[in-house]
Design goal:
2 domains, single chain, Serine Threonine Protein Phosphatase 5, Tetratricopeptide repeat, 16 helices, mainly alpha, two-stranded antiparallel ribbon, binds zinc ion
């Protein structure tokens, strides 16, 4: 206990030197971990931590770490509607934050919103197809073949949304991944990194870049910028490009160039991706 208290003091002293929000986060963590008093007292203390942290989050909405912590604490107290609100606020600022998506999927499952949960899991999967928590959710929660809702467990007897037979009764189910993922989804996170670096994008712009925002707008860029992206993509994927498709890539509009280049990647020749990604890119099947 003494060791813990002095460690906590040290982190408080460090936080004080940083900024007000970080200091509040440290205070909240400390109060949350405080086990002194009876159950009622701990409960009351935790509720007041959430209230205060909620105020901090509203005052500093760009701080994704605060929304994340708030969602975590709300989940602990079983306030899943609160988790939905906190994750929605955080995702408004950082739509590709996979931790927030994962928390949102879990809360939606708890609340029985299984169609929305399927949609959120699809987003998480597009944002970060190989993230451990996303992999785990996909494994545990297959999709109903009849209506597309998420099953609350991998052995569920019936679909809570439409009543169709579930995997527990031997029904065929789908995976979020096999239904929605294309080569574009699978390669996008890497392409985004290459692009951001080649064009010196600030981190907050990079974070807002999704497959949709990239491919649905006609992003006119100078030939010089397109050439830079082309070079960076060639360095990254090199021999994995299908030669004919690569040669026909359109330079001038960044979105067209990127989609042509992703189309030209041949996963079979891409030595840099792990076998799980390769299999999904080639056959579109679940893990
Ligand atoms: Zn169903």
């Amino acid at each position: 206990m003494i060791g813990d208290a002095s460690r906590a003091d040290q982190s408080l002293a460090r936080a004080r030197q940083l900024d007000a929000v970080t200091f509040e986060v440290e205070l909240a963590r400390r109060a949350w971990a405080n086990q002194a008093g009876g159950e009622d007292e701990i409960q009351r203390r935790r509720e007041s931590v959430i209230k205060r942290l909620g105020g901090v989050a509203v005052a500093a909405p760009e701080r994704i770490d605060v929304w994340k912590l708030l969602a975590e604490y709300l989940r602990h107290l079983g306030n899943h509607e609160g988790v939905l609100r906190a994750t929605a606020s955080g995702l408004k600022r950082d739509p590709v934050n996979v931790d927030l998506w994962v928390r949102r999927v879990k809360a939606q499952i708890e609340l029985g919103q299984l169609v929305s949960a399927a949609r959120s899991l699809k987003h998480a999967c597009v944002v970060s197809p190989t993230h451990d928590s996303v992999e785990a959710l996909i494994r545990v929660h297959p999709l109903c073949a009849a209506c597309g809702a998420l099953f609350p467990t991998s052995g569920a007897d019936t679909c809570a949304n439409c009543g169709a037979d579930g995997p527990g009764r031997g029904a065929a189910v789908r995976s979020v991944r096999s239904r929605h993922q294309s080569k574009f989804d699978i390669y996008f996170p890497r392409v985004r990194d290459v692009l951001a670096e080649a064009l010196d994008m600030p981190d907050h712009i990079k974070k807002r870049l999704t497959l949709d925002t990239l491919l649905k707008r006609h992003l006119k860029r100078t030939n010089q910028q397109c050439a830079r992206v082309l070079r960076a993509m060639s360095n990254e994927f090199g021999s994995a490009f299908d030669h004919e498709l690569f040669k026909s890539a359109v330079v001038g509009y960044l979105d067209l160039l990127i989609s042509d280049l992703i189309r030209a990647i041949n996963p079979r020749d891409d030595k840099t991706i792990d076998t799980g990604i390769r299999r999904r890119a080639m056959y579109g099947t679940g893990a």
